[in-house]
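Hi R.,

As promised on Friday, here is the backbone we talked about, encoded as structure tokens. Could you run it through your design pipeline when you get a chance and send me back a sequence?
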């Protein structure tokens, strides 16, 4: 089914590709689970990285996912202050109440891995770099290494 408007058809197709990729990373065939996971992790990340970085990330998302990303955002309440892994996990778990800690960890890693693949690599490195070191471990190793090298070069 098409909408008859190319830009809408394109964003639906791109968004479905993102969800399919995330479903594979999560090892599920449940599209709603992948959607809920993507929404939860993106919201917590968005709130943690501050308004400027959140806006740059939002610009990299397909239009349909951009709407999901900005849903309910209160820019004045950001950035949030999670500095430790347990705090970040707790925030994601609030958005995924049926998930246990292992599932939340897997969700964060899967979404960060998806972002590393789908957005500009420089943007992914920048996002990893603005997170506290304890939270960078959820990014794929190549992003962590690039963020570490970038911060070492800036010092």
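Update: got your reply. Pasting your designed sequence below so it's all in one thread:
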């Amino acid at each position: 089914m098409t909408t008859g408007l190319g830009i809408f058809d394109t964003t639906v197709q791109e968004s479905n590709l993102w969800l399919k990729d995330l479903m594979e990373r999560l090892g599920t065939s449940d599209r709603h689970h992948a959607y809920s996971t993507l929404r939860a992790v993106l919201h917590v990340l968005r709130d943690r990285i501050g308004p400027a970085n959140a806006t740059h990330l939002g610009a990299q998302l397909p239009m349909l996912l951009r709407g999901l990303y900005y849903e309910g955002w209160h820019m004045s309440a950001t950035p949030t202050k999670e500095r430790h892994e347990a705090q970040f996990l707790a925030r994601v778990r609030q958005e995924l109440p049926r998930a246990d800690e292992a599932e939340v960890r897997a969700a964060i890693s899967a979404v960060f891995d998806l972002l590393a693949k789908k957005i500009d690599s420089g943007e992914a490195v920048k996002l990893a770099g603005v997170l506290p070191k304890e939270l960078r471990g959820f990014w794929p190793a190549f992003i962590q290494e690039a963020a570490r090298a970038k911060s070492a070069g800036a010092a």
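One thing I noticed while checking it: DSSP finds nine helices and no strands in the chain.

Thanks again,
M.
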